[in-house]
Design a protein that fits this description.
alpha/beta, 298 residues, elongated, 18% strand, five-stranded parallel beta sheet
Amino acid sequence: MKEETGRNIMRFVIVTGLSGAGKSTALKTLEDYGYFCVDNLPLLLISEFARIMIKGNNALDKIALGIDIRSGEEIGTIGDILNQIKEMGVQYEVLFLESNTKELIKRYKETRRAHPLSGTKGNVEDGIKRERELLGYLKEHANYVVDTSKLLVRDLKQELEHIFVENGDFNNFVISITSFGFKYGIPIDADLVMDVRFLNNPFYVPELKPLSGRDKEVFDYVMASPTAEEFLNKYLDLLNFLIPQYKKEGKTNLVIGIGCTGGRHRSVAVAIELGRRLMDGEYVIKVDHRDLSRDVSR
């Protein structure tokens, strides 16, 4: 980011979001990309910090400041503080890291850490709910809201590189397509579920039975049906209508479940093809196969 004279303009990024959503990873990633990173600076010092950064011939042109719920109830003053640094001429950007409650609880259980707002009873869910309320202003005024519910660490790093290194266009709408087997239950986080058991079943073709929807032979068998093509066209029409409505509502993550009997043949092939066709849209597409490794010996 440069002025017309060629002199660097400081890029001032505020990294915030829900505890457990990936703020530490984001700060470390930005540090690797040459950002000067400061985490958990007391809120009262933010204005002075910004003043120091823009004063004189400071060599730092990329700065990331971590803010989170550890600031306590004082986080309610963040709006006034941001207005102060804006009046100084600092064009800050806010990166807000989000995740669904179920995933956050899972992460806390895995790390055996206590949520900073869980209180003496240790209720993580109540802590997350309160944290969402306190950080509401920051999320509402964020330039980038990244939902990490379905993102691996490498996916988050790639997204940050795209935004803060390549200066690419940001799209925070993630579509996760999950193939599954109905015999193992419907994915509990699915927003939309589609049953594709009406398609020709490779399970009953001896040479195709041991393969999966990832294999060309099975994929071609499933997709060769005119019914499969018609279904995909109609379903894409529905998604093209629904997605803008979800985005207007403020949704950033859509989980689509594609199910067949065992989750190995038809649902896998359809999920792959659906993901391929949606790649042409302005979305981040993730495709995974929940039950692909089950019953391999069938």
